[in-house]
């Protein structure tokens, strides 16, 4: 069997994660943490391109993996047009939309851009798989309450789908036979309802639902409009407040939940209140998603970086275990999911899709 060496790149809000796979075997995995001040120097996500590319190539050089040995590169796909799940070849149109941030600013917009440029430099194919813009929402879920505004499906789809398949398989079932509420707890938070393998509703993790380490989630709408027209902030400043400097960061000046827990241990009452409030909002959103499934929920699944925290998961479980059993799958398997998505196409097991 031919060996394919694949570089997977996953730019997140607090880190850039990379891995190199020889077929499905991972030979390098690294999380490069970025401090908030470093990333805040860039006014737009696309401006971080050179900075993130350098940390990736430096890391590969340090680990002794020559770029010339790669057969393909795959990045986490971003806020593109709503699209069905699958592996897509990166093309110029996609890069244009990622740079523009068609559905908004998000670190994963850099995944396709980095993959495309590396692909061009080394004459290898570049892909994305299950981007943030995967959209399986039912029509009823799209109605917002104002005719001009539709609710949108933007989520940690890559990890959420992979974890859904894994938890179902571990229970001897198929993801397509189960009803799940899957919650990704990262720099942003996605709370998603899955009916028989389709993600039928989701808080848009960039603008709705619970607040997260760096995002506001849903805000009191009249007060938000007032703030927008107060003359204190530009459009870009407001966008930044909502998606990069909101949530825990706006109250405590950090996006790192480990730091928040350390402060609580030292007796910081404000940190404790903010963490409790985040948990409260997450649990409320899980309750709302249970109603989209009419209470027919096989499991609630907690995943993402913050799911490493026993404190946070225990507090969520206490509030939602009356709905269904809760399974915790800490961290994410996005890099593996990316590599496997590329491999399926390289091996001819799946057709690559074209973005247009
Ligand atoms: N052991 C831990 N305990 C508590 N929080 C943790 C732990 N490990 C990581 N985190 C928190 O998880 C969050 C990052 O999660 P994750 O890596 O899933 O997201 P990300 O990739 O940075 O962002 P995005 O939401 O854009 O995907 C940070 O707030 C980090 O502080
Ligand atoms: C916008 C949803 C995905 C993420 O927050 O990473």
Automatic annotation (TrEMBL):
Its EC number is 2.7.2.7. One of its GO terms (biological process) is acetate metabolic process. One of its GO terms (cellular component) is cytoplasm. It catalyses: butanoate + ATP = butanoyl phosphate + ADP. The keyword GTP-binding does not apply. Pfam families: Acetate_kinase (PF00871). Keywords: ATP-binding, Cytoplasm, Kinase, Nucleotide-binding, Transferase. The keyword Transferase applies. GO terms for molecular function: acetate kinase activity; ATP binding; butyrate kinase activity. It is found in: Cytoplasm. SUPFAM superfamilies: Actin-like ATPase domain (SSF53067). Its main location: cytoplasm. InterPro entries: Aliphatic_acid_kin_short-chain (IPR000890), Aliphatic_acid_kinase_CS (IPR023865), ATPase_NBD (IPR043129), Butyrate_kin (IPR011245). HAMAP family: Butyrate_kinase (MF_00542). Belongs to the acetokinase family. This is Probable butyrate kinase. It comes from Koleobacter methoxysyntrophicus. The gene is buk2_2.
